[in-house]
Specification:
By secondary structure, the chain is α/β, with parallel strands linked by helices. 17% of the residues lie in helices and 33% in strands. The chain has two domains: 9-64, 2,3-Dihydroxybiphenyl 1,2-Dioxygenase, domain 1; 79-131, 2,3-Dihydroxybiphenyl 1,2-Dioxygenase, domain 1, CATH 3.10.180.10. The longest helix has 12 residues, at 16-27. It is elongated, with a radius of gyration of 17 Å. The protein starts with 8 loop residues before the first strand and ends in a 9-residue tail after the last strand. This is VOC family protein.
Length: 140
Amino acid sequence: MLMTAPQLYISFPGTARDALGFYAEVFGGELSLHSYQDFGRTDGPPDAVAHGVLSGVVSLSGSDAAAGEESVKIEGAMLSLLGAAEPAVLHQWFDKLAMGGRILDPLEPKPWGASDGQVVDRHGLRWLIGYEPASSTDGM
């Protein structure tokens, strides 16, 4: 399989199972988790996630950081879902990501005509979600 764009791989601070499960609840898709024990790794707890993949409309991968490794701290970057789904779906995702997180900018129409917003979810990832207004020729 040819990859056409970089994919985010997140090192969580021991919360990969909860975080990737949360994203599966938000976005749907298929979640596959493998423990350190499954991979024969001894650099972390046996039940820690050594590799997890959420495949679907929104795909994410990650693991629990091994002993001595840094976990995710993202500054100056956002995960962008601009135009990634119909507006109603984007609003649902935004609302679900905001549960236990914090809204930085509500998902609403902006002066330039598009609708967008920003939210930091409960696992510390910052999301930019939005869409362009429906064309006046839609449905004609």
